[in-house]
Design the sequence.
């Protein structure tokens, strides 16, 4: 099974943009869907966006609609999260994971990448 690796995090100012990348190391996205999640300091992990691998159907959390864009590159086995108009409340560790079948829990979590937005 592919191991997921996130990259692209960093320290930015409010209003800036960042693009996160999730790549399948050692395999392919043999998944129904790939999702981005985040865990702010001292809070529970929450889903940010998800995309079905074959159809490209997309779902966003209300907090990021209109600001974040998820996309996939099938040839590169990668999923990206373009984050615009970042806010301090977007500060979190961002993870990607995959859901193997419709309705299945997300699994194969990456190690996470830190995003810090200063005001």
Sequence:
């Amino acid at each position: 099974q592919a191991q997921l690796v996130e990259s692209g995090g960093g320290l930015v100012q409010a209003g800036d943009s960042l693009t996160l990348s999730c790549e399948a190391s050692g395999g392919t996205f043999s998944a129904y869907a790939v999702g981005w999640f985040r865990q702010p300091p001292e809070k529970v992990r929450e889903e940010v966006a998800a995309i079905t691998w074959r159809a490209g159907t997309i779902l966003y959390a209300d907090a990021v609609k209109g600001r974040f864009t998820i996309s996939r590159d099938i040839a590169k086995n990668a999923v990206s999260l373009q984050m615009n108009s970042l806010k301090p409340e977007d500060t979190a560790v961002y993870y990607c994971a995959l859901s193997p079948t419709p309705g299945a829990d997300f699994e194969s979590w990456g190690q996470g990448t830190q995003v810090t937005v200063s005001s």
